[in-house]
Amino acid sequence: MAKIREMVMAVNHVKMDDEDSVDVAFWLSKTPGERLEEVYRLRQRYFTWANGSFPTKIEKAVHQKKMKINKG
Fold first, then answer.
1. pLDDT grade, residue 34 (50/70/90)?
2. Is the pTM of this model over 0.85?
3. Would you say residue 63 has pLDDT above 70?
4. DSSP labels, 30-70
């Protein structure tokens, strides 16, 4: 016997000026783990769309440089 799924339509009307603050408030309400999961999901979808598959290894894109401090 198949289950019938019901979906409730929900709409929030937000002024364009308030949109950024609503987005920030939404993401601040999530845990760091939930935010990272969403970043991973978006990266996976983008790479699959752009390249046809998700790479098994991603190249490091951030490099740190040591700063020289002049004491003088």
1. very high
2. no
3. yes
4. S-HHHHHHHHHHHHHHHHHHHHSS--SS--------PPP--
